[in-house]
Amino acid sequence: MFVTIEGPEGSGKSTATETVINKLRELGYDVLKTREPGGTPISEQIRNVILDKDNKAMDGRTEALLYAAARRQHLIEKVWPAVKEGKIVICDRYIDSSLAYQGGARGLGIDNIVDINMFATENTWPDLTLLFDIPPELGLKRISLNKNREVNRLDLETLEFHKKVRQTFLNLAEKYSDRFVIIDASKDREQVAQDALDAILKRLCK
Ligand code: TMP
Questions:
Q1: Residue 100 has what pLDDT?
Q2: Which residue owns the Cα nearest ligand 1 atom 15?
Q3: H-helix or E-strand containing 18?
């Protein structure tokens, strides 16, 4: 099963995912945790280029293509082999981040971003997508309080940009309602992790 974790900045998705993965392993599931952009040496190098705060001249389409390139390499080297071995692959961000950030917030258009990603992924959609939903004001406040977190190029975008990201994620959840589950990430940490675990277990039992 291929599970993706999506949500805006400061939604607490990475912390909740750690807890969920530990619980799944305790239950005996073979889980691979990975992330985008990154997850393999080549994709991590692409990540550094995309997120470098000094790359202010980066064009939106260049950004979208780099995310898609990192995604393809990551699928080939990590995701596809693990799914083939019967593992549960849990990936922090995937195609819906490109649809929300590049397609929606950057205004490149959802259909254009779907097109380049269908080429990059050979039509690989996740089996389940958990959307950690939080108002951007709250998410951005959380990341500003987290002194250990490195600020990246996309964090520096305006509140307006982050509002568009959230709205596009919610639109995608409605459009692809068969694979999306919305998790209310403004709840306390334990509840958020429990809701995410319940959603994965429910899908596994289907
Ligand atoms: P993160 O590792 O903190 O989630 O940071 C990755 C950043 O990249 C985050 O701001 C979301 C953004 N992103 C996109 O804009 N498009 C994508 O396709 C992906 C995977 C991430």
A1: 98
A2: 101
A3: helix 13-26
